[in-house]
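Listing S7. Sequence submitted for prediction.
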Amino acid sequence: MSDATTRARVLLADDHSLMRRLLRRAIDAHPQLELVAEAADGAEALALARSLAPDVVVLDLAMPELDGLQVAGSLRADLPDCAILVFSAFEAERAASAALAAGADRYLEKAAGFEAAAQAAAELAVTRR
């Protein structure tokens, strides 16, 4: 994100269409965010991220093809300036630790809510740059 007037470009990756729809609504409602793409699996997420170079990727951990940890690790290597938010239903501290170790900037449980995830994405876009 180059300045305060530019909206952060977000890629959303979750294999559940309902989760994507609800998070898409929260992202669309956030004035600092612009959803540029959605992926239903990890391989699609990685391919889209490599082609679009979003400011923020919001990932679920449990996805087909490549899981969120694999995607986060590849993104950190390929797109070091991209912020990575893992937004997952896993509540275990181990899941959060694994996500951060894989390269995620932040871990947020889905129980925190979709607006909280959108806000976290906006904050990461600012602090990552």
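Caption to Listing S7: primary sequence and predicted structure tokens for the chain studied. Strands lie at 8-13, 33-39, 56-59, 83-88, 106-109. The chain has one domain: 8-128.
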